[in-house]
Amino acid sequence: MRMNSLQMQAFGPFPGAQAVDFDELGADGLFLISGPTGAGKTTILDALAFGLYGTVPGARSDAEDYRSHYADPDTPTYVEVEFTAQARRWRVRRNPRYMRPKKRGTGMTEAKATAELSVFNPESGHWDGIGRTVSEVQEEINRVLGLNAAQFMQIVLLPQGEFARFLRADPIEREPILRRLFNTEHFTDLESILEARARQARAALDAVSQERQTLMRQAQGSCGEDLPIPTAAHPSVADVDAVLGAAVSVVRERIDVFTEVLQSARTRSADAEAAADAAAARQADREKLTQLRSRQEAYATSADERARLAQLQRQAIKAESVAPYGREADRAVREQEAAEKHHTAALTAFSTELSALPRQPETTSAEHIVQAAGDGQRAAASIATHLTRVADLTRERTDLQQKQTAAAGRVAELEEKAAAQDAALDELNARLETRSDVQREYDRLLRALEAAAIRQQRGDEITAAEQQRDKQQEALKDRQAEESAAKDTYARIRSTRLAGIAAELAAELTSGHACSVCGATEHPAPAKPTDDTVTKSDEDAALNAWTQAQNATNTARSTLAESRARITALTRSLDELAGEDAAVSVAELTQARDIAAQTLRELDQARRERDELRQKRVALEQQQASAREDAQTSATQLSAVGGQLKQLDDVVSGDQAAALHPFGFETPDTSAAAEECAAQLQRLRNAGETLIQAQTKREDTAAESAERRDAFETALTEAGFTDRNDYQEARQIDKAGVDSALRAAADEAARIAELTSQDWYSPACADTASDEELTDSVAVTAEQRTTAASDAEHLGQLLAVHRHDAADLVQLRERFLHTAAEVEAEVAQRRGDVALDGIVRATSADNLHRLPLSSYALLSLFVEVAHNASERLQTMSGGRFTLIHDLSLHRREKRAGLGLQVLDTFTDEPRDPRSLSGGETFMASLALALGLADTVAAAAGGIRLDSLFIDEGFGSLDPDALAQVMEVLDELRAGGRCVGVISHVQSMLQSIPQQLRIERSPTGSTITHRSSPDS
């Protein structure tokens, strides 16, 4: 991983765009970043960190105020970093969250934080976008670099004082830093996983033990005996099998005993069952014999009744043969009576219709009257149709005349309305012609108001800046007075010291040593100090006070110059804003703008009214066309109706009037009269036709009735009936009842014969025991049977229970033994999980060092860090110092392993890093940083770190130590790294050709690249 370039704008103390070409700077492998304190040297490292990770090292990340305070409000803030990683060139661009002016209107708005990442495509020569969201960009950068933000800021950017604090820190304070750098979370995750597995394993072991305890208790309950159950918390397979086997043996012995007892009980029950069945059978045969004899007596006494029923059955059969003739004769009589009634009603209705006529017809024949009524009805209907059509056309002509008049009025009304709308449209168009001029004036007033607001803001800023400048001028006068006083004090003290220099030199004289002035070794009369003697320390203090006063004066002068420059810039900006409306007040411009805005609103309303009126005008034209069309249609229809009425003016024909005269009707003059005449004649015709049909029906039914009556009389004679009364009596017989009674008698005779032929009949007749004796025998044998059966059933239930218990116990034992091997294998695995968790998390005595896995891994990495750092420190210190990994247990520590000591070869004694001097501390810290960088890079997958930045600390080294440190940096450079150092040391300014110089000014800092000619 190598940094190629950096571009930034409005970031930190840099108000404008700045660019750093690390490829050019690092051509020699080593370059220097220099500049005054606070100029922004460290900001370059902050920009690299921000560009890659969106944050900066140390406490500065808490501020989150990355935007330059010197930048113009419209200048955007961004950082762009190009770097090489995984043999590809990458470019990331970020901007932080900051406030910027609104694009529309006045005031400020927040610019959101953004990030863009792209990779250079050598085939196309373009940059291909990878991610555009902050999270996407960060995820890809972490993957490409193989380092997170904390690792990058510790091993690529070596920040001010960070590693000195790390060097001097207690071991307990180093652990969280190392965990963050080495990403040992996977070890702690593994510890958590193993802890969870151990927790599950313990639960599983407890469950197995509980299940085995339950099995043994269940076996004891099934056999009903006290069995020897093991008391161990985790019983073995053998323990459980021994208890189950003992329970099975107990139950099987009990089954054998109950089987023998049950067999004897079942034999006794069978004997009692046979005796009870025999007694019950004798009693049942006696009851059947008694019932049979009663049935035989009843059958013998019913002989006369059976003969009577046979005679009734014969009479009913003859009546059934004659019944169809009787039914046909009755039906014919009923139809004849109905025809007579229908004829009488039809004759009455026909007479009623005839009497309602104006005049009776001359003929009395119903057929002739029906024919004449049909002719008259058709003639009257034709006359009604003719008169109805004339009336309809007359009404239609009246309606059309009214419509024609209304349509003409509508046409005239719409023409007047169209003329009014045209006039209104002309007026609105004339008003709207001025809108473009009003809009231009309104836009000009808006721009003038915006410029006036900016001028007012600039004026306020100038006033504030002038007030600040006046205060700074007064402060400068005070600092100049203080500087003058300090200068006079220093001159007075120095003059006094020079005057008493003899006493100061005399104080340094020693007997036997030469005087530095005269060279004599004897000093008989050395000068004595007076009360106002001034020492060199007094002079140095006065000089220091004068120097501080000078610095304060220079600072005040610089501050005043910055204020004056700001006033000049603001004044120039205000002059640039002057325009044609500069003399007009904001209130006047606002009033003019409001008037123009109101005018625009009124014109917009007029435009909407015009558009609406145009739509109404189009609709009105459609209405006019429709009204004209309606008027034309009404005229055409009126002409057609008039022609039809002329055609219908002919009188009714003479044949139609003649058809009505036989019935006394005059020719109708209205459609209603014609329709009433047609209806009356239709009713007469219908009544006549009904009468003709009734006469025919009456004659037909009379003939059929006589024929059916003769056939019935013949059937009665042939069947042997004397008359109809004799037949009716036979019809009243319940033949179904007679048949049923005769069948029942035959069935009873057959049943009696069947019973007397059965096997029980003869023994029952021969049994001489009384009924009481049979009853007593049944009761005694039934009781004996019940008792014996109950005893056998109870014993059988007990045996079934014992057999079920035995089967359950056998199945329980087989199931247990079937799964025992698998369960034991799982138990062994679970015990292994518990043991492994104890070792990994250091809760087991088997972990001799009492170190969890994550701490052990961290300790191993820290040993590597100490080894790598020691090699660097030996080179820097000329072989004097070596870093030693300290395994002793320190204060507040539960575990040892993260201690550091420095072995001093001058004394061969280990030293606490806190006892080192400033220069020694810097060398040890730098060595530790480089060693940590090497170890982290290796732990991150062997990534190559080709860029390294070291911030400050070189000023604490003496020339020899500085030379040795530079040798280490040369080694890094020789190894292919590009090393950038930040320092004020003069010798480094002279020895490092490639330099990045940060210049500070009242308006912000700038960056320049310098290189010596030798480079």
UniProtKB/TrEMBL annotation:
<feature type="domain" description="Rad50/SbcC-type AAA">
    <location>
        <begin position="5"/>
        <end position="216"/>
    </location>
</feature>
<dbReference type="Pfam" id="PF13476">
    <property type="entry name" value="AAA_23"/>
</dbReference>
<feature type="region of interest" description="Disordered">
    <location>
        <begin position="615"/>
        <end position="635"/>
    </location>
</feature>
<feature type="region of interest" description="Disordered">
    <location>
        <begin position="459"/>
        <end position="488"/>
    </location>
</feature>
<comment type="similarity">
    <text>Belongs to the SMC family. SbcC subfamily.</text>
</comment>
<comment type="subunit">
    <text>Heterodimer of SbcC and SbcD.</text>
</comment>
<dbReference type="Pfam" id="PF13558">
    <property type="entry name" value="SbcC_Walker_B"/>
</dbReference>
<dbReference type="GO" id="GO:0006302">
    <property type="term" value="P:double-strand break repair"/>
</dbReference>
<protein>
    <recommendedName>
        <fullName>Nuclease SbcCD subunit C</fullName>
    </recommendedName>
</protein>
<feature type="compositionally biased region" description="Polar residues">
    <location>
        <begin position="621"/>
        <end position="635"/>
    </location>
</feature>
<dbReference type="InterPro" id="IPR027417">
    <property type="entry name" value="P-loop_NTPase"/>
</dbReference>
<dbReference type="GO" id="GO:0016887">
    <property type="term" value="F:ATP hydrolysis activity"/>
</dbReference>
<dbReference type="InterPro" id="IPR038729">
    <property type="entry name" value="Rad50/SbcC_AAA"/>
</dbReference>
